[in-house]
Recover the amino acids of this structure.
């Protein structure tokens, strides 16, 4: 496969994770400007695990996701009383603190004659697990895409279970959720932790594909992009964030003539799109319609109705 | 036997006393009406009982258990469900899912059940939703988005959703609000035949014929205080009540 | 001790610039109840228009200042039409993401036209330091402070003494009631946007003129400084915006002097975070009664 | 003076008014009664230009004002006292009054405020206080005074008695009565049928988005009016 295409597909995979994490929080009605913190934590933590401790990426994945879930859950608990814009700004402040902490952190050890470890704004390099294990770019892409497929699959299952509906209910009407017996606090903290873990997965793959990451990779631009992906692609299905990422990275990286003017074109496109589709391309209503069209073609009609005078 | 016992319930908002020393006892299996002019404290009463606002003073006990000041999700675990005067459905979910979701609160639902998307128990629960939809006359609209339903159906959906949790005590806030007389009769029948059997109900309503039709007993609130209690006929002929409605009606919004 | 006072003084000066940014932010938030992330970038357009005038016509500071304000207003109008006027009420999230998209667009536009990393910007003239009791102050800082105070005074007159100000306050407090009085809310929002952009343009000019280099990152900085100052003071409150801006300036200055640039930024965000957790209403937080009243409206 | 002709007003797909016609004669108090959700407020909003009727027309003093901007309608001489008063809580009383005169360009605004203060001395006492700190009755008074600042020929009032103690309600109704005596026409939406009928010259009954009765207060048994208007029973 073409090298350029491989790198685009790997990027799409990596950024879809963080877009999914922002989408999960959007479902519960929260706008997070801070998912890049967990993406960054994922990149750094996993990089340390493989480059400094010499463990494999497969060991790094669960460790990193746990660490990210834990820190995200903690942020979720601290910010639990904040709603709306206050929550958004608090997550932004947290993420910037994380980024600045990375800029301020130097912790290097000598391994095989080389200094390895976070080095302030020079970032963390030598994340060579893929190279050392002879995993080529092509293979790494498949690792990312298959993991993405699994995570997306879990998302679809979640959305079909009551858990998905519970998240959506909290997002649509918090008070209703409470009177429905939903422990909103607990579910919100759970969603925040889960979103942190998913974002960190993107960071892990990003770090191991790039081999070198910098604190500036995890600035607020990344966070707002991840939020925008879900909203552009649509908030009705987990395919929405993927579609958003594909539109941004895939489409615009692939089309040569927009090079250099990419954000001028994309920014305008998104602004116009949002005028006509304020909840994205695949919003709840369109997803519902698609689902209905699909179902009536494929399965039996809805259960036969019995006569009920009340329905008249 | 008394199911809901409210003693000396007071709720203040700043200087305003939205509920003033209200005591009400609702018996098991009863349909109890709550009436009063706009803003007399009826909805505040529901909000305090369901835990949305903590009481300023007074006790609320459900089946002997003190629920005053509990957060809404815990109150609801003890078998209490309600509907809302200005409709709170999840607009972007379909009718079936709105009800199906509500089952999560039933006793014996574990985290595994909440994650379930198949299996025998889940199938039977889904079947229950369909049965309920049919009983409530909503089977035709099973797949429609809740926001696409006309108002009377939305009200019925709210009642059906509350019943999906099998509550001991069901609070209905203006179940016939904004409905035509014909639609009101329909909803009265639904309450009588589907919601009331084996359950205790408290109903807020302005439409007196509905109250007379379905309620065993009723109480009247005025300025946050209870001014009368008895059978609907007694209450509606009470001189003080007549005075409130026909004479110096005044409110406390 | 002298250092402490000196740093505080410098902090107040820079804080005056932040306060102006926060006032612009808060005006827009007040009438719209939506967040305009493109506020900083639209000011940046003004700043670069000023730079353009300076580089090509070797203009003095006054024409550059005017160009800066005009540029900010034009960009502000573009943002208002694209992100707020065209997107229906209730889609606050779409508006916010849309302002972000426009932000990206404006930033890229600037980097395409101005490909170098930094540009020079005119200063408010070559002026001396003023000294007093061992403290010193750059004359241009004093001018900056003076202009900021003047702007706040003018704004106060505008908001509390004119018909336009009355309509802005009415729409901020209750858009529905404002409509009942015959106020055209759309027009008021549009004009408030222009006003906020003009204030932002002045703030941008002052901030850049006292530190005479311009980078395309100015938009990001302006948005976040303004946002932080607004949140510290309490959203929608103009006295709050001033207090928040000055507080931010002082804290930044002290941290910078003691621990350097990273800790300066860290402290700004930490301060914001702590305020959000412990005093979400900001410095000018509302009383308990107001929150009770808000709770009443909730159901 | 005001003619409403067969208007249909909808929220999305739901029609709140299904063809309402009524007229408000000059110099009179016209009352619109009806149960919750009948469409009373929607009718007022359609007249005041805050909602656009899908069909039908509204004419004021012979001129078509259907779908005009609210500002234009206020300028023509129709002012609204909204439900729940909706004063501006963080503005002082004086500024609240000024918002009422927003559509005016003359220089008699301050002198009008003075005459408002003469009429409502209690507002004068509190002219510097934020409106949010006033009592319910004072806020209602302010809402009425604010509408008067537009120098209306016709006042639309949406449930001015809502949330007020009986004594205050009587005072508000006395004010409405006085205003009418001085020549302002009144179109009043009320749930307090008993009080409203005492001052009404004529009344309409609105049920389910349709006018089901019109006449003068003597035309229908008061108890039946109350039954239908307040309780919505069809007995």
């Amino acid at each position: 496969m073409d090298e350029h295409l491989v790198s685009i597909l790997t990027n799409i995979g990596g950024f879809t994770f963080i877009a999914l994490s922002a989408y999960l929080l959007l479902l519960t009605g929260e706008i997070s400007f801070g998912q890049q913190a967990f993406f960054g934590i994922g990149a750094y933590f996993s990089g340390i695990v493989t480059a400094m401790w010499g463990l494999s990426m497969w060991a790094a994945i669960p460790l990193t996701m746990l660490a990210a879930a834990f820190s995200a859950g903690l942020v979720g608990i601290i910010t639990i009383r904040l709603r709306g814009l206050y929550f958004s700004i608090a997550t932004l402040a947290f993420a910037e603190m994380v980024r600045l902490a990375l800029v301020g952190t130097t912790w290097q050890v000598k391994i095989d004659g080389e200094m390895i470890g976070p080095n302030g704004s020079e970032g963390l390099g030598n994340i060579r697990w893929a190279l050392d294990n002879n995993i080529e770019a092509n293979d790494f892409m498949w690792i990312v895409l298959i993991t993405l497929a699994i995570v997306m699959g879990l998302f679809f299952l979640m959305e079909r279970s009551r858990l998905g509906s519970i998240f959506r209910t909290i997002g649509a009407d918090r008070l209703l959720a409470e009177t429905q017996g939903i422990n909103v606090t607990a579910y919100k903290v759970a969603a925040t932790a889960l979103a942190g873990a998913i974002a960190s997965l993107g960071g892990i793959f990003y770090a191991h594909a790039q081999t070198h990451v910098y604190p500036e990779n995890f600035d607020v631009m990344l966070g707002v992009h991840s939020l925008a992906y879900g909203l552009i692609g649509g908030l009705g299905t987990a395919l929405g964030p993927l579609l958003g990422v594909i539109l941004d990275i895939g489409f615009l990286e692939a089309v040569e003539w927009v090079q250099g003017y990419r954000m001028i074109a994309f920014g305008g496109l998104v602004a116009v799109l949002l005028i006509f589709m304020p909840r994205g391309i695949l919003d709840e209503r369109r997803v519902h319609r698609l689902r209905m069209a699909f179902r009536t073609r494929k399965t039996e009609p809805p259960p036969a109705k019995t006569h009920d005078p009340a329905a008249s | 036997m008394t199911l809901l016992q409210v003693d000396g319930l007071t709720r203040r908002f700043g200087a305003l006393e939205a509920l003033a020393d209200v005591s009400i006892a609702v018996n098991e299996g009863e349909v109890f009406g709550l009436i009063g002019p706009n803003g007399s404290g009826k909805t505040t009463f529901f909000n305090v009982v369901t835990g949305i606002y903590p009481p300023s003073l007074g006790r609320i006990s459900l089946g002997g258990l003190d629920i005053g000041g509990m957060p809404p999700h815990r109150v609801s675990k003890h078998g209490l469900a309600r509907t809302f005067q200005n409709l709170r459905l999840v607009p972007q979910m379909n009718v079936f899912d709105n009800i199906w979701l509500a089952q999560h609160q039933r006793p014996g639902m574990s985290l595994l059940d909440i994650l379930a998307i198949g299996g025998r128990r889940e199938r039977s629960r889904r079947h229950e939703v369909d049965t309920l939809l049919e009983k409530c006359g909503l089977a035709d609209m099973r797949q429609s988005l809740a926001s696409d339903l006309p108002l009377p159906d939305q009200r019925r959906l709210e009642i059906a959703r509350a019943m999906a949790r099998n509550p001991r005590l069901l609070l209905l806030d203006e179940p016939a609000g904004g409905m035509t007389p014909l639609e009101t009769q329909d909803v009265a029948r639904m309450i009588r035949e589907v919601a009331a059997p084996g359950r205790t109900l408290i109903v807020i309503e302005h439409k007196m014929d509905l109250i007379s039709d379905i309620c065993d007993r009723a109480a009247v609130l005025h300025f946050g205080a209870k001014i009368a209690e008895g059978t609907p006929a007694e209450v509606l002929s009470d001189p003080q009540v007549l005075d409130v409605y026909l004479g110096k009606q005044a409110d406390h919004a | 001790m002298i250092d402490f006072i000196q740093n505080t003084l410098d902090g107040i000066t820079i804080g005056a610039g932040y306060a102006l940014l926060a006032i612009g932010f808060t005006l827009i938030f007040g009438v719209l109840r939506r967040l305009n992330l493109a506020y900083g970038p639209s000011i940046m357009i003004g700043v670069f228009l000023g730079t353009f005038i300076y580089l090509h016509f070797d203009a003095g500071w006054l024409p550059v200042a005017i160009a800066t304000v005009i540029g900010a207003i034009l960009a502000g109008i573009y943002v208002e039409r694209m992100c707020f006027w065209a997107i229906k009420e209730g889609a606050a999230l779409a508006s916010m993401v849309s302002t972000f998209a426009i932000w990206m667009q404006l930033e890229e536009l600037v980097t395409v036209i101005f490909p170098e990393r930094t540009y020079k910007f005119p200063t408010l003239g070559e002026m001396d330091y003023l000294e007093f009791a061992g403290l010193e102050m750059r004359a241009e800082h004093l001018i900056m402070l003076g202009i900021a105070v003047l702007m706040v005074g003018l704004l106060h007159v505008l908001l509390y003494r004119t018909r336009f100000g009355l309509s802005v306050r009415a729409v901020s407090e209750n858009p529905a009631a404002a409509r009942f009085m015959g106020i055209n809310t759309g027009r008021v929002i549009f004009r408030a946007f222009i006003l906020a952009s003009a204030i932002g343009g002045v703030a941008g000019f002052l901030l850049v003129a006292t530190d005479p280099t311009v980078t395309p990152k100015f938009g990001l900085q302006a948005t976040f400084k303004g946002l932080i100052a607004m949140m510290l003071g309490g959203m929608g409150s103009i006295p709050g915006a001033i207090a928040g801006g000055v507080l931010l300036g002082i804290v930044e200055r002290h941290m910078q002097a003691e621990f350097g640039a990273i800790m300066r930024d860290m402290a700004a965000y930490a301060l914001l975070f702590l305020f959000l957790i412990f005093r979400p209403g900001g410095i000018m937080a509302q009383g308990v009664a107001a929150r009770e009243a808000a709770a009443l409206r909730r159901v | 003076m005001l003619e409403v002709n067969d208007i249909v007003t909808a929220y999305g797909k739901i029609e709140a008014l299904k063809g309402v016609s009524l007229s408000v004669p000059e110099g009179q108090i016209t009352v619109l009664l009806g149960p919750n959700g009948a469409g009373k407020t929607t009718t007022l909003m359609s007249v005041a230009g805050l909602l656009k009727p899908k069909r039908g027309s509204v004419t004021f003093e012979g001129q078509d004002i259907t779908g005009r901007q609210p500002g234009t309608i206020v300028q023509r001489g129709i002012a609204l006292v909204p439900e729940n008063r909706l004063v501006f809580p963080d503005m002082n009383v004086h500024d609240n009054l000024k918002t009422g005169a927003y559509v005016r360009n003359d220089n008699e605004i301050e002198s009008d405020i003075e005459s408002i203060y003469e009429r409502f001395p209690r507002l004068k006492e509190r002219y510097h206080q934020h409106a949010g700190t006033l009592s319910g009755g004072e806020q209602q008074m302010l809402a009425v005074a604010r509408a008067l600042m537009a120098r209306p020929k016709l006042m639309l009032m949406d449930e001015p008695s809502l949330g007020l103690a009986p004594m205050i309600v009587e005072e508000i109704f006395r004010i409405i009565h006085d205003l009418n005596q001085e020549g302002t026409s009144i179109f009043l939406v009320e749930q307090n049928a008993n009080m409203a009928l005492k001052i009404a010259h004529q009344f309409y009954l609105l049920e389910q988005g349709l006018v089901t009765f019109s006449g003068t207060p003597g035309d229908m048994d008061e108890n039946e009016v109350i039954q239908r208007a307040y309780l919505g029973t069809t007995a």
